[in-house]
């Protein structure tokens, strides 16, 4: 009798994610459809197929700015369907006390926004990433499926990036619909590098910039490397190799330096230090040599000066709007009021996610979020230090974790799975 009562009292697991309970044929079909959508979302996550909508606020001095254009991506559509399929559970997640406070703070920020239409769009993107985080948190997705999705996408990007690197231009054709942009060494603003006097096109893959490509696969690399849940050693090692090649091919100095530093720490803490010091030394040596080959390439000689100029602009914006900021997503229109020292630079966000976030939502909101999610932050540093510090370190030198679709949604996927 006690056993029977215990079974009755056992709460039914979340039906939206179809845990191990007896299911009707309809539920089984929905579960399979849900898993297919999750796989498609992971597969298309590196791509940027989407439709931009350019309004008056999307132009600065007559120049179209993608960052200010509301965009519907294929991944947005897949995310919307996933959220709709699990709507009841997602709503319960959103009425969590801390989530509600976060959304309320950002809602108040809209009142102080320089352009409310831009801020509303960015607010919707925040809702999306919170929803994606929950979807992958509760989906209990097969690690084999997750590994396969990341691997297929990475191999596709490696093949495309290699072709761009060899040909020194984009391939276009059908690849345009995956998000490949027109690239050529002769085009202004295209990321280039010089190695031993030879000019190189830094491959973009289907990303907006090689740095974004590097950051994306840097995060996946350390997620796969440090997770003990992936038992398929062969597929895991192949994915790690492909991610490494993409990081090197990007010629992103920050990503390569971060890759080298954290690999050194990981290897130093591994069992190799006790079991095979020669193996440890050889691995570190190979990583160091390969990394230095790519790090010695010369990229934009004005990169440091440009970044410092953007940081000065950000500090000026924060000084003028310290409490509430200029409104989420409104950094560029406000920065556009500053004099332009470098061509096209004024239409770029500051290359620091912390300065960018502070300038948009203000110091008060930053402090509030820090207090609100202190325990979660502390737990993240303890349980997934490599993931946390990869975002932290690369975020100090670039903005793609907040501004670009692929990197932004990847954070939601990784945190959800963790």
UniProtKB/TrEMBL annotation:
It comes from the Bacteria. It is found in: Membrane. One of its GO terms (cellular component) is membrane. The keyword ATP-binding does not apply. The keyword Transmembrane helix applies. The chain crosses the membrane at residues 29-47, 67-87, 99-117, 123-139, 146-166, 207-226, 238-268, 280-298, 310-333, 353-374, 386-402. Residues 239-369 form the O-antigen ligase-related domain. Keywords: Membrane, Transmembrane, Transmembrane helix. It is a multi-pass membrane protein. PANTHER family: O-ANTIGEN LIGASE, TEICHURONIC ACID BIOSYNTHESIS PROTEIN TUAE. This is O-antigen ligase-related domain-containing protein.
């Amino acid at each position: 009798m006690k056993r029977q009562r215990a079974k009755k009292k056992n709460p039914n697991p979340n039906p939206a994610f179809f845990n191990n309970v007896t299911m009707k044929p309809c539920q089984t079909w929905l579960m399979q459809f849900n898993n297919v959508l999750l796989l498609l979302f992971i597969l298309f996550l590196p791509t940027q197929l989407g439709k931009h909508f350019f309004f008056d606020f999307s132009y600065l001095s007559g120049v179209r700015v993608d960052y200010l254009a509301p965009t519907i991506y294929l991944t947005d559509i897949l995310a919307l369907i996933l959220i709709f399929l699990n709507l009841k559970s997602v709503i319960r997640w959103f009425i969590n006390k801390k989530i509600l406070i976060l959304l309320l703070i950002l809602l108040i920020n809209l009142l102080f926004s320089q352009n409310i239409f831009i801020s509303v769009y960015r607010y919707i993107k925040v809702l999306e990433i919170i929803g994606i985080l929950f979807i992958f948190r509760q989906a209990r997705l097969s690690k084999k499926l997750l590994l396969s999705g990341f691997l297929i996408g990475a191999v596709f990007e490696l093949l495309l990036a290699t072709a761009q690197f060899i040909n020194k231009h984009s391939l276009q054709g059908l690849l345009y619909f995956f998000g490949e942009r027109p690239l050529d060494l002769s085009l202004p603003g295209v990321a280039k590098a010089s190695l031993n006097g030879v000019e190189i096109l830094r491959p973009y893959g289907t990303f907006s910039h090689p740095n974004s490509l590097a950051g994306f696969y840097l995060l996946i690399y350390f997620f796969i490397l440090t997770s003990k849940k992936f038992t398929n050693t062969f597929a895991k090692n192949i994915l790690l190799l492909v991610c490494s090649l993409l990081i090197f091919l990007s010629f992103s100095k920050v990503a390569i330096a971060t890759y080298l530093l954290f690999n050194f720490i990981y290897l130093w803490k591994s069992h190799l230090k006790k079991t095979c010091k020669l193996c440890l030394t050889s691995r570190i040596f190979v990583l160091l040599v390969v990394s230095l080959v790519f790090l010695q390439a010369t990229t934009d000689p004005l990169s440091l000066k440009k970044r410092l100029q953007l940081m000065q602009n950000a500090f000026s914006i924060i000084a003028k709007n310290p409490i509430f900021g200029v409104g989420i997503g409104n950094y560029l229109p406000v920065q556009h009021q500053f004099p332009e020292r470098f061509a096209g630079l004024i239409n770029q966000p500051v290359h620091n996610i912390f300065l960018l976030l502070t300038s948009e939502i203000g110091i008060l909101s930053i402090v509030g979020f820090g207090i609100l999610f202190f325990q979660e932050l502390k737990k993240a540093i303890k349980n997934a230090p490599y993931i946390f510090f990869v975002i932290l370190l690369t975020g100090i030198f670039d903005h793609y974790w907040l501004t670009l679709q692929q990197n932004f949604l990847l954070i939601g996927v990784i945190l959800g799975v963790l």
